[in-house]
């Protein structure tokens, strides 16, 4: 082949900046997500220090507002989302027997736009004040009248850029799963994690345009003096709530469905049993996604929508409990009679089940409109939300990371440290959020900077803060585990758990650059397990050994994202008055904005005009494994 050895190899940092390999992009997502997760965690600790005792003045009211806004925004959009995408990137192509994702270039672009959006948002801390209108950015609080700094501008523009990355990532996964499954891998033979990725990507496709429109309108209100949400100009602030929550509630399922998928992989592996009720799991997941778009106004029971709207949204919210309940019972029945091994991954998976049920039960309580009038904007809602997202999603992510770490990096995480992570994090979590239900029922409002003594809030807040520190210790133990494991040799076998059921366990750990030397032939659900039961050591190939086409590394996704980042800053400061006349010249005349857009569109033009055919790995080079170190 003409391109066999003409591949341009980069070294060191350039290798990571130019990569289009989904496995390396998974590592980039993991590092970026870990960074933002850490920032969000520090913000949470600072919030809990402030609330440890009554009348505390650890931070000012303004800084507290910035902390609660940035904690929620960072954790949801920049902390857990990229870790979900890291696991999806690392696992989904392997589970469906694909050599890559459908659009490797777009995959890289999705990561870099997400990263630069997240960096732009966090730059607000050092460039004049972070957003301070709550993570939901309700108007008119987020309007220029009440939020005069650039904080909310960083929020609107940063999230638009980061959201673009998430949206194109979702489209890429849809295309990959629809078009690149191995022969015999019908939809009803796909592993549950692939199914949840598929459905999550579909939700992203429909939900993210809504928030994008909302953020664009809010940007217009703030920077271009439009009146979409300004009552004095004929706008409607409740319109923002509708736009935000028609995205915001599906976003909860964008976060939690991948965790469901992880649990559905981990529990069968460590129970040595097939997942109970596979087809009912698939249809329950689809139903959850469908109903997830029909419940947004349950966040708005107190806005005066009227009895009919409240009743309809109340009923549709309670309906979601049905498919979720199906999943819970299926996990329990999978474990029933199984040969359960309590590895670190399985501890997180089993701990997930009762904790998530607790979040679901309080969710049904909040779904009752009359009850919600009492619970609304109290710590009861905070407790409910964190039981779903931390007790559900974060425990699921820990399970997934412990489970697939050897496949991603070729090294098995320490089991003893993994169990220490579980117990410290789990006990800390329950201490932090269980008591907040009672704080809410006793009348403690959320988003308040402090509280008066002798209201019975003191002890419970102290317990909650101690629990938060313990969760922090759990995360630190996990990081220590990673550092220690990284120093070990790369010696994980193909199937380190010995009971792997799906295709990713059939190839070396970590996988070679091309994933599969020969595309496997799938003969049933749990394809690898089926071959094991038939006495086969490996999968039957669906093709002869041949030349494997690979996409070329390119810096263009990185350059495009830098351009969007510069354009965002240019738009944000276009109305500011600077001391330096040169700064006024380049910002007030939109020169910075234009330069940023030129960089992005220039990179797009290069991509369109230069036809890169990629390169090939010949059969004689394939036995070298090509594994990453």
UniProtKB/TrEMBL annotation:
<comment type="function">
    <text>Cytochrome c oxidase is the component of the respiratory chain that catalyzes the reduction of oxygen to water. Subunits 1-3 form the functional core of the enzyme complex. CO I is the catalytic subunit of the enzyme. Electrons originating in cytochrome c are transferred via the copper A center of subunit 2 and heme A of subunit 1 to the bimetallic center formed by heme A3 and copper B.</text>
</comment>
<keyword id="KW-0812">Transmembrane</keyword>
<keyword id="KW-0349">Heme</keyword>
<keyword id="KW-0472">Membrane</keyword>
<keyword id="KW-0560">Oxidoreductase</keyword>
<keyword id="KW-0479">Metal-binding</keyword>
<keyword id="KW-1133">Transmembrane helix</keyword>
<dbReference type="GO" id="GO:0020037">
    <property type="term" value="F:heme binding"/>
</dbReference>
<feature type="domain" description="Cytochrome oxidase subunit I profile">
    <location>
        <begin position="10"/>
        <end position="523"/>
    </location>
</feature>
<feature type="transmembrane region" description="Helical">
    <location>
        <begin position="238"/>
        <end position="263"/>
    </location>
</feature>
<comment type="pathway">
    <text>Energy metabolism; oxidative phosphorylation.</text>
</comment>
<feature type="transmembrane region" description="Helical">
    <location>
        <begin position="585"/>
        <end position="606"/>
    </location>
</feature>
<dbReference type="Pfam" id="PF00115">
    <property type="entry name" value="COX1"/>
</dbReference>
<dbReference type="GO" id="GO:0005886">
    <property type="term" value="C:plasma membrane"/>
</dbReference>
<feature type="transmembrane region" description="Helical">
    <location>
        <begin position="26"/>
        <end position="47"/>
    </location>
</feature>
<keyword id="KW-0813">Transport</keyword>
<keyword id="KW-1278">Translocase</keyword>
<comment type="similarity">
    <text>Belongs to the heme-copper respiratory oxidase family.</text>
</comment>
<feature type="transmembrane region" description="Helical">
    <location>
        <begin position="104"/>
        <end position="126"/>
    </location>
</feature>
<keyword id="KW-0679">Respiratory chain</keyword>
<dbReference type="InterPro" id="IPR014241">
    <property type="entry name" value="Cyt_c_oxidase_su1_bac"/>
</dbReference>
<dbReference type="InterPro" id="IPR023615">
    <property type="entry name" value="Cyt_c_Oxase_su1_BS"/>
</dbReference>
<dbReference type="GO" id="GO:0004129">
    <property type="term" value="F:cytochrome-c oxidase activity"/>
</dbReference>
<keyword id="KW-0249">Electron transport</keyword>
<dbReference type="GO" id="GO:0015990">
    <property type="term" value="P:electron transport coupled proton transport"/>
</dbReference>
<keyword id="KW-1003">Cell membrane</keyword>
<keyword id="KW-0408">Iron</keyword>
<dbReference type="GO" id="GO:0022904">
    <property type="term" value="P:respiratory electron transport chain"/>
</dbReference>
<feature type="transmembrane region" description="Helical">
    <location>
        <begin position="275"/>
        <end position="296"/>
    </location>
</feature>
<dbReference type="InterPro" id="IPR036927">
    <property type="entry name" value="Cyt_c_oxase-like_su1_sf"/>
</dbReference>
<protein>
    <recommendedName>
        <fullName>Cytochrome c oxidase subunit 1</fullName>
        <ecNumber>7.1.1.9</ecNumber>
    </recommendedName>
</protein>
<feature type="transmembrane region" description="Helical">
    <location>
        <begin position="556"/>
        <end position="573"/>
    </location>
</feature>
<dbReference type="InterPro" id="IPR023616">
    <property type="entry name" value="Cyt_c_oxase-like_su1_dom"/>
</dbReference>
<dbReference type="InterPro" id="IPR000883">
    <property type="entry name" value="Cyt_C_Oxase_1"/>
</dbReference>
<feature type="transmembrane region" description="Helical">
    <location>
        <begin position="192"/>
        <end position="218"/>
    </location>
</feature>
<feature type="transmembrane region" description="Helical">
    <location>
        <begin position="308"/>
        <end position="333"/>
    </location>
</feature>
<feature type="transmembrane region" description="Helical">
    <location>
        <begin position="345"/>
        <end position="367"/>
    </location>
</feature>
<feature type="transmembrane region" description="Helical">
    <location>
        <begin position="157"/>
        <end position="180"/>
    </location>
</feature>
<dbReference type="GO" id="GO:0006119">
    <property type="term" value="P:oxidative phosphorylation"/>
</dbReference>
<feature type="transmembrane region" description="Helical">
    <location>
        <begin position="459"/>
        <end position="484"/>
    </location>
</feature>
<dbReference type="GO" id="GO:0046872">
    <property type="term" value="F:metal ion binding"/>
</dbReference>
<feature type="transmembrane region" description="Helical">
    <location>
        <begin position="67"/>
        <end position="92"/>
    </location>
</feature>
């Amino acid at each position: 082949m003409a391109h066999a050895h003409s591949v341009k190899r980069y070294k060191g940092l350039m290798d990571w900046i130019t990569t289009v390999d989904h496995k390396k992009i998974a590592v980039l997502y993991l590092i970026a997500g870990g960074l933002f997760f850490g920032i969000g965690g520090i913000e949470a600790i600072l919030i809990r220090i402030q609330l440890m005792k009554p009348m505390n003045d650890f931070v000012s009211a303004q800084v507290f507002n910035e902390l609660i806004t940035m904690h929620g925004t960072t954790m949801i959009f920049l902390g857990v989302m990229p870790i979900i995408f890291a696991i999806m990137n690392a696992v989904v192509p392997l589970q469906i027997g694909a050599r890559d994702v459908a659009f490797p270039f777009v995959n890289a672009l999705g990561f870099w736009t997400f990263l630069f959006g997240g960096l732009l948002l966090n730059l607000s801390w050092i460039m004049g004040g972070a957003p301070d209108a709550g993570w939901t950015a309700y108007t008119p609080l987020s309007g220029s009248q009440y939020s005069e700094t650039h904080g909310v501008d960083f929020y609107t523009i940063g999230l638009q850029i980061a959201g673009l990355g998430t949206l194109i990532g979702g489209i890429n996964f849809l295309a990959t799963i629809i078009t690149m499954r191995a022969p015999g891998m019908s939809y009803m033979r796909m592993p549950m994690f692939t199914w949840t990725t598929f459905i999550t990507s579909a939700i992203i496709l429909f939900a993210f345009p809504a928030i994008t429109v909302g953020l664009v309108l809010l940007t217009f209100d703030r920077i271009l003096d439009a009146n979409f949400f300004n009552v004095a100009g004929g706008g409607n602030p409740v319109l923002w709530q509708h736009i935000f929550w028609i995205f915001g509630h599906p976003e909860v399922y964008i976060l939690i469905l991948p965790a469901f998928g992880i649990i559905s992989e981990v529990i069968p592996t460590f129970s040595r049993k097939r997942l109970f009720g596979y087809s009912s799991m698939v249809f329950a997941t689809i139903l959850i996604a469908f109903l997830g778009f029909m419940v947004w106004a349950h966040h708005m029971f107190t806005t005066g929508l009227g009895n009919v709207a409240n009743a309809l949204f109340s009923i549709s919210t309670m309906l979601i409990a049905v498919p979720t309940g199906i999943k819970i019972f299926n996990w329990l029945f999978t474990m029933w009679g199984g040969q359960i091994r309590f590895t670190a991954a399985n501890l997180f998976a089993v701990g997930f089940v009762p904790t998530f049920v607790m979040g679901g039960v309080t969710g049904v309580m909040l779904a009752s409109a009359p009850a919600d009038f009492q619970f609304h904007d109290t710590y009861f809602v905070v407790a409910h939300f964190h039981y779903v997202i931390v007790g559900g999603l974060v425990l699921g992510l820990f399970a997934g990371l412990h489970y697939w770490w050897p496949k991603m990096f070729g090294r098995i995480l320490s089991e003893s440290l993994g169990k220490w992570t579980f117990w410290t994090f789990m006990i800390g979590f329950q201490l932090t959020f269980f008591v907040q239900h009672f704080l809410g029922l006793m009348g403690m409002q959320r988003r308040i900077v402090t509280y008066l003594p002798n209201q019975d809030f003191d002890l419970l807040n102290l317990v909650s803060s101690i629990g938060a520190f313990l969760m922090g210790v759990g995360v630190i133990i996990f990081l220590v585990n990673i550092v220690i494991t990284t120093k070990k040799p790369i010696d994980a076998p193909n199937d380190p758990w010995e009971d792997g059921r799906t295709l990713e366990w059939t190839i070396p750990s970590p996988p070679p650059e091309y994933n599969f030397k020969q595309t496997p032939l799938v003969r049933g659900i749990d394809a690898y397990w089926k071959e094991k039961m038939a006495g086969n050591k490996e999968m039957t190939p669906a093709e002869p050994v041949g030349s494997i086409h690979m996409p070329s590394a390119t810096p263009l996704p990185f350059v495009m994202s830098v351009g969007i980042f510069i354009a965002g800053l240019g738009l944000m400061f276009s109305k500011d008055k600077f001391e330096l006349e040169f700064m006024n010249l380049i910002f007030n005349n939109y020169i910075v904005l234009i330069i940023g857009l030129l960089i992005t569109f220039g990179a797009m033009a290069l991509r369109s005009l230069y036809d890169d055919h990629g390169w090939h790995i010949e059969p004689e080079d394939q036995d070298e494994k090509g594994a990453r170190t």
